[in-house]
Specification:
This protein is mostly helical and about 80 residues long. The chain has helices at about 1-15, 20-35, 40-55, 60-75. Helices cover about 75% and strands about 0% of the residues.
């Protein structure tokens, strides 16, 4: 499930204006960021580890960069208390 979520978010993040309204894209990305930032610590850590494994296995440089930035970009780390 997490891999499917990341795939959708990567698509939205990389969409051109003609593919998806930029305001709608921002709303979706921010909404997901809010939801994942409220996960319990054990689930957050599990998602961070999964995304890290996905990044390590990724051969597409732009997708690898997205995966490496995912935890901080979506509120899993950074401003956690």
């Amino acid at each position: 499930m997490a891999e499917a979520l990341v795939d959708v978010l990567w698509f939205i993040d990389g969409s051109e204006d003609e593919q998806m309204d930029p305001d709608d894209a921002v709303k979706v990305l921010e909404g997901v960021g809010h939801v994942v930032s409220t996960l319990p610590n054990d689930q957050r850590q599990e998602l961070i580890e999964l995304v890290g494994e996905m990044a390590a296995d990724e051969t597409n440089p732009s997708r690898r960069e997205f995966l490496e930035e995912f935890p901080e970009g979506f509120g899993l780390i950074g401003d956690a208390s």
